[in-house]
Amino acid sequence: MQKESLQQANGNSIDERLLLQTGYVEKVNSVGKGEIIEISLYVPLVNMLGWTEVPYIKFSVGGALFRKYTPAAWDAKAQTCTLFIDAAHDGPGTTWARRLRERDLVQYIKVGSSRQSPHPTGRIVGLGDVTSIGQLLALFQMTNPGTRFSGVLLITDREQSEYCNKNLSPYLHPVLCEDTDQITPVISWINAQKYSIPDTCFYITGNDFMVIQLRKSLIAMGFATEQIKVKGFWS
Fold it and tell me: Origin, by domain of life (predicted)?
């Protein structure tokens, strides 16, 4: 059974490699100590006009390994998009991102959907950590008008916080958290906004512990479960 599974896995890997499509790196920028990597891509075969939900692109990061990343912003006419990759940990995706340089070729197997889209009329509030920059900014780009969107990006590094303040959407507010309590600063920010309970929809993304605790806190504040959309990325 083990040998059969291995052969099947190898077969799938070969099939996937035959289906790979190509894009190119236009620009790479490392933020702070290199723990956030911003990558601008030209991907001429991606149909961005068809995106109605927050998308992801499944990239080949070496051998038979693939990782999904959410474009933080895109220009359908120019056929470009931008990724923000959390490189604070070691792994195949981080190694791949660190090695990329301008004009490098990138390959991807699939463009898919995260199954998240902004509520058509209500207030959209995004909550996340540095692993969720792409998801939160994609949500902002899909919110029309953009003034319906606001959000918090939980940052643990001061230099990253300054970069995000200067370069990301003014509607996404970096909150610096230099201790282990990730929840209190976010709840304090939410309380200060005085959101109308019936008209607000929350989208929480990031590490599983933060996602679970924020969801519990929002329910305790009176928000209904259907007003809270969650997506945990790691634990």
Answer: Bacteria
